[in-house]
TrEMBL record:
Record-level Gene Ontology MF annotations: zinc ion binding
SMART domains, per database record: BBOX (SM00336), WW (SM00456)
UniProt lineage: Eukaryota, Sar, Alveolata, Perkinsozoa, Perkinsea
Domain WW: 506-538
Protein name, UniProt field: B box-type domain-containing protein
Biased composition (Polar residues): 9-20
CDD domains: Bbox1, WW
Organism of provenance: Perkinsus olseni (Perkinsus atlanticus)
InterPro entries per UniProt: WW_dom, WW_dom_sf, Znf_B-box
């Protein structure tokens, strides 16, 4: 197309002039077409075939001219629509900035001022309150013991009429009292100064916190503004792309629907009669037959696509600068170096056994005024190549697009054939092509090979996230998407799919939340309010994948667990550092326990008693890694966990049985079945549980009168004991009575309630309750009327206490200073004070089997 002149009339004037001119010419052209059609029919009918042929030629030229004019009109209309859309987008952007400056920015400033005013008011109120308390305070200085002793001696001397010594003692007491009062006053003044300093520190901290919040609000507003601006630009880009696509589609349809022309031979035309010649001359002048005739082949659509692709490559080269390689004959512009291939059949990606053929390589060769573009890609059986020849010509047939081919030699021969055909006179220098395609297109250049090695090294050592986790489904990325995000190579990492599974299923940290925007996943830290495209666990699993590629663990659960344990301690001890010799780091920490629980696939929130097994495993594996032995014993620790579960299940079953048996003990055996009274006495001779009326009725006469009992002699053995239920748990028999609390409690509840504070000084009274160690087992009919055998009696086994300790979420850990801290497994709460709830301690060897001096006792632990 010809270039536009330097100065042009206004757009509106140019458009109106063009429209009016186009309308007149279009009318004349349509009129000429109709006249030519009529004239051609008459010539065909009368037998004037030469005149009919000339009329057909003129008719074809007129239609071609009409198509060209319509195409220019469509282009002009689309250009005007594009300019109007761009101006509309610019107006929307200006309106957005104006709205931001006029509405949102003042609101933000007002919010900041309100926060500052509220801070000043709160500080003023706190200062006034402190001054008011200090003014109203009554300082009372009590006399010391020394002064009181001196006053008592002076009073005694006064009573004995020794006034001289009494006056001396009173003076000394007054001086001592003044000195003590001055010390007390100085102490109070120091305390007031300390309070003032604390108030100033608190105000400074609050001011710093508010300023930090204001700064965070500013940053959040700036980020929101940046996101809105990027969203606006994306929408504008999509609209412009849709408009260009629509324009290109309409032009393609116009080209497809246009007439197909075939050039005729001018030497076959003969002279026409005079009347016919005059009419034909008029029609030819209307058609404006100027210039040579054009020939359009049947492959016009394919060549149009080739031209479009070549123009896009040229635009890409001009918009984005590549690396220019200057050579003696033909310069080379490398747009993309691509990547070095690593996989099966890697020998096919090498030239002469030493030069690598890059994948996704793009380069442009400059040969005179012409350009040649070479592309590479990974094919199913090896590398594939494509060449695009872009000559400096306006003829569509001169543009050549070679299809993808895995045979570079065949592609090179086709290119040379095209070049020799174009250069029929032999005026161009083609000596550059004698060195072969590998040199011409830069495959053997040192700069290309060094860049491939640099890209390969960077991919192997860089730990930062270069991409984004994309997901098709909202808020639920698939395993393949996690593999692509982690950089898993299917041909190399087929046995490491479990790493992607672990990466996908591991819960996020407590302060992280996952969101999705336009199919892209990002994570937000709720503590700092910062968002990131990087997964919180990305670094850990990236290192794990790299270590798995080196160690190559087998795809078996034992080997995988052993590898994960070894990886945990290698990161903990930093074994990759050869200068690291000190392994004195905390082992039994909360994070390590949770990580080991994830490896062993246990939930310590539901089974907190397994924490002790995990801590024991941490000690064992730490010693193994320190001594550089092979990590094993995974199955033994899993068996130990199952052993713990069995013991806790015994506690649960014993607790249920104890509740049932206590319920049976609370019923009198003599009362009718439909009206059972609670039992309060147990006769050692009768071996029955009785209520008070039934006991009196049965022991009022006969030999039963000799069943002696003593209520007040609590520590002496007797023939009957009192029965009661614990007021706290309401399930166990009461064994102690607190005089101050006035409650009957079992041993477990009494220890839990009276463990701290003033309740430690409460005096308990031991009740003479039923005990397996002091009394004989009751008759089998006592428990649920014979439903429970005597061998199944669980009263007094402390099953409830053992179960409460095993299921308690409070576990003891040690910090870096070896100071005890108490951590709640379920809530994540951590404190240094002893909690009110029972602590989760390890099951003793004598309870429920415990470790029972099994395999775990023989482990070498530090």
């Amino acid at each position: 197309m010809p270039r536009a002149p330097a100065t042009s009339p206004p757009e509106s004037a140019r458009s109106s002039t063009f429209t009016s001119r186009l309308g007149g010419e279009e009318g004349m052209r349509e009129c000429a077409i109709r006249v030519l059609e009529i004239y051609k029919k008459q010539c065909d009918r009368d037998g004037y075939f030469d005149e009919a042929w000339e009329a057909a030629e003129s008719l074809r030229q007129l239609k071609h001219e009409q198509t060209r004019v319509l195409r220019e009109e469509v282009r002009r209309r689309h250009a005007e629509e594009l300019r109007s859309r761009q101006s509309c987008i610019e107006q929307q952007r200006t309106e957005y900035y104006r709205q931001w400056e006029e509405e949102r920015l003042p609101n933000l400033k007002r919010a900041v001022e309100d926060i500052r005013e509220s801070l000043v008011q709160r500080q003023a109120l706190a200062r006034d309150e402190l001054h008011r308390k200090l003014r109203k305070r009554r300082y009372r200085v009590a006399a010391s013991g020394k002064v009181l002793n001196m006053l008592a001696r002076a009073r005694s001397l006064t009573l004995r009429d020794d006034y001289g010594k009494a006056r001396l003692l009173l003076g000394e007491a007054e001086r001592e009292d003044s000195r003590s009062r001055m010390e007390e006053q100085a102490h109070e003044e120091d305390r007031v100064c300390r309070l003032m300093r604390e108030l100033a520190d608190r105000q400074r901290k609050e001011r710093t916190m508010v300023e930090g919040k204001i700064q965070d609000m500013r940053q959040e507003v700036l980020r929101q503004q940046q996101r809105e601006f990027e969203d606006l630009e994306r929408r504008a880009g999509r609209k412009l792309a849709a408009l260009r696509k629509k324009q290109k589609k309409e032009l393609s349809e116009m080209v497809r629907d246009g007439p197909s022309f075939e050039g005729g031979r001018a030497d076959e035309a003969t002279a026409a009669p005079t009347s016919r010649t005059t009419c034909f001359s008029m029609i030819e002048s209307l058609a404006g037959n100027k210039g040579p005739r054009m020939r359009v082949m049947a492959s016009h659509l394919a060549q149009a696509k080739a031209v479009s692709a070549a123009e896009e490559l040229q635009d890409f080269r001009r918009e984005r600068e590549g690396q220019l390689i200057i050579r003696e004959q033909a310069p080379l512009l490398v747009v993309s170096f691509g990547q070095k291939y690593s996989g099966p059949n890697s020998s096919k990606y090498k030239i002469e056994g030493k030069y690598h053929i890059p994948v996704n390589y793009k380069a442009i060769l400059k040969w005179g005024d012409d350009e040649m573009v070479v592309l590479t890609r990974q094919g199913p059986f090896g590398p594939e190549f494509q060449i695009i020849y872009l000559p400096k010509s306006t003829v569509a047939d001169d543009f050549t697009l070679f299809d993808w081919n895995s045979n570079m030699t065949q592609l090179w021969d086709e290119l040379l054939t095209v070049l020799e055909t174009m250069d029929e006179g032999g005026t161009r220098d083609m000596t550059v092509f004698t060195q072969g395609p590998w040199y011409v297109f830069g495959f053997t250049e040192d700069a290309v090979q060094l860049e491939l090695d640099k890209v390969k090294k960077k991919d192997d050592t860089e730990d930062l996230v270069d991409g984004i986790l994309y997901c098709e489904e909202p808020d639920k990325p698939t395993l393949e998407e996690f593999q692509r995000y982690l950089g898993v190579k299917p041909e190399l990492d087929d046995h490491f799919v479990w790493i992607s599974h672990e990466f996908m299923n591991e819960p996020l940290p407590a302060n992280y939340y996952q969101y999705t925007n336009a199919g892209m996943v990002y994570w937000v830290n709720a503590t700092t309010q910062e968002s990131s495209w990087k997964h919180p666990h990305y670094d850990k699993y990236k290192k794990m994948l790299r270590a798995a590629r080196i160690n190559r663990p087998l795809p078996h659960w034992k080997t995988i667990m052993s590898f994960q344990v070894e990886f945990l301690f290698s990161e903990l001890f930093n074994l990759n550092d050869p200068s690291k010799t000190d392994f004195d780091v905390p082992i039994e920490t909360v994070n390590n326990v949770f990580e080991l629980a994830r490896i062993f696939k246990v939930d310590i929130k539901e089974e907190p008693y397994l924490t002790h097994v995990l801590k024991r495993a941490l000690r064992h594996y730490a010693d193994v890694v320190r001594s550089k032995r092979a990590v094993g014993g995974v199955e033994e620790f899993r068996n130990l966990m199952q052993r713990y579960r069995d013991v806790v299940q015994q506690f649960e079953k014993a607790n249920e049985l104890e509740s049932e048996q206590v319920t049976s003990l609370r019923q009198c055996v003599e009362c009718p079945d439909d009206n059972k009274e609670p039992a309060v006495l147990y006769c050692d001779n009768c071996k029955d549980m009785l209520c008070q009326p039934c006991f009196d009725r049965l022991h009022c006469k006969g030999q039963r009168q000799n069943h002696k009992h003593s209520v007040l002699q609590l520590y002496l053995p007797g023939t009957w004991v009192e029965l009661g239920i614990c007021a706290e748990c309401d399930s166990s028999l009461a064994q102690l009575h607190c005089v101050q609390c006035q409650d009957a409690l079992c041993y477990s509840c009494y220890e839990q309630i009276h463990i701290r504070g003033g309740r430690r000084n409460h005096v308990p009274i031991v009740l003479r309750s039923f005990s397996l160690s002091m009394h004989t087992i009751p008759a089998s009919s006592t428990f649920a009327f014979g439903a429970i055998s005597p061998a199944a009696v669980t009263i007094g086994s402390n099953a409830a206490r053992n179960l409460a300790i095993s299921m308690s979420p409070w576990v003891v850990f040690e910090d870096e200073c070896e100071v005890k801290v108490y951590y709640n497994i379920q809530t994540g709460e951590c404190q240094r004070d002893l909690p009110m709830a029972p602590l989760n301690t390890s099951i003793e060897s004598s309870i429920g089997g415990g470790f029972s001096y099994g395999w775990a006792e023989s482990l070498t632990c530090t």
